[in-house]
Amino acid sequence: MIRQRAEPGELRALDAGGLFELGKGRSLGRLGKFGPRQPPSRESAEGDPGAGVVEPASRSWLEMEFDSEALRRLLGKYKFRDLTVEELKNVNMFFPHFRYSMDTYVFKDSSQKDLLNFTGTIPVIYQGNTYNIPIRLWILDSHPFAPPICFLKPTANMGILVGKHVDAQGRIYLPYLQNWSHPKSVIVGLIKEMIAKFQEELPLYSLSSSDEARQVDLLAYIAKITEGVSDINSKNWANRENKTVNKITVVGGGELGIACTLAISAKGIADKLVLLDFSEGTKGGMMDLDIFNLPNVEISKDLSASAHSKVVIFTVNSLGSSQSYLDVVQSNVDMFRALVPALGHYSQHGILLVASQPVEIMTYVTWKLSAFPANRVIGIGCNLDSQRLQYIITNVLKAQTSGKEVWVIGEQGEDKVPIWSGQEEVTNHDSQMQLSNRAMELLRVKGQRSWSVGLSVADLLDSIVNDKKKVHSVSVLAKGYYDINSEVFLSLPCILGTSGVSEVIKTTVKEETVTGKLQSSASSIHGLQQQLKL
């Protein structure tokens, strides 16, 4: 077995004695929110036969000299392996101690893929001392057009300090990852930002011996590389007191994002509203929003500005030049892969409200990527159509509905269908269907402009934030309703409040046409979802 020992002055990593200062053998003391809980202890690594030993994993090698051809063979299934090899050669120049291997990565949807990854340490200067932080980077097979997936790699005597840039499983979130764009984004730049951010907030601390047994369980969890829901909470981050009562984040500075911002501001729902804008230059109306400075609105490109939001609203859509519908949807999915995990990390107890299109599929994607419970991931669905239909029936057709509500349910588009609340006699049911069909004809001539969708989003937000327990037709997990057995999101009438969806209203619809349309929509949506790469 190959073993490589750190020489004096070299980086020491994965050592049983803790995190070691460069060349001095200093272990990292326990750190709290703003600094050491106790002074770092001085533990010499000199003479320790285990100090600095790095054990290679299976199918791995230590880069004594960078072997481009061996790496190129290893990356046989990578789409852009030549670009990847060239970039890793550059990484090796700056960080020659990194160890590379091919291992299986398990994604949130339980799919697996053999990916190149490398482990090693990065030097971080914190409060005058230099510490080696062990990390692991997974290189996706679409690299360099997709960012690496980054983790801390703590040993059994290291604890994770969950914070602005690290979650409880050790996954690392940085602006550099969120704004990744080839060719300007490179791994060396990513690591340099990682070092800079960790110098502001150190991500690891040394555990006492009494805590090590508990840490072993966490490490076993991390080793599986499954990024689902964790019951591990952080006293330093997740439970940090939130001074802002109603903080809302709108993701996307396009027309819909601006429309949502204006509608939410007009309703006075938010104490603070963050608009995350990723556009360049002076496109759209973002410059005007910045110039005229709406009260309580912050415009930012940093995802961490969204921290502790009660609701995060997704309005972004990919503007790629792909021709096929599947390619367009996949472009949106690729964008969400960079956004959703980070935004979910920053607002772990919030509601995710999806307005991006196609809303049913992007709500499903958000649910899968966030690992949030289904009641806290909601699509805007047919709320706008439902509110319009109710208005047309009552105010345009002047019909008496005896207090009964009507909703549009199903999939946005031609297959959406109207249903009525309550149980009706057959004669009354027939008249209601004639009325709703006539109203639907009037509804079809109405478009969905950004400003009208923005008003609908504000309506949903009002019900959620103010816990109104109002019924809305929104996209929710439809499995188990109308004999639907697949994991798809469709619009169903739901009661909304601060916990998201508190109840799905069970209707007494016996129309085979309604059930048939819902099942047909579910089948087509599920078929498309199966082709997406999450």
TrEMBL record:
SMART domains: UBCc. Residues 65-208 form the UEV domain. GO terms for biological process: lactate metabolic process; protein transport; regulation of DNA-templated transcription. Pfam families: Ldh_1_C (PF02866), Ldh_1_N (PF00056), UEV (PF05743). It comes from the Eukaryota. SUPFAM superfamilies: LDH C-terminal domain-like (SSF56327), NAD(P)-binding Rossmann-fold domains (SSF51735), UBC-like (SSF54495). Residues 30-53 are annotated as: Disordered. Signal peptide: none annotated. GO terms for molecular function: L-lactate dehydrogenase (NAD+) activity. GO terms for cellular component: cytoplasm; nucleus; vesicle. PANTHER family: L-2-HYDROXYCARBOXYLATE DEHYDROGENASE (NAD(P)(+)) (PTHR43128), UBIQUITIN-CONJUGATING ENZYME E2 VARIANT 3 (PTHR43128:SF33). This is Ubiquitin-conjugating enzyme E2 variant 3 isoform X1. It comes from Odocoileus virginianus (White-tailed deer). The gene is UEVLD.
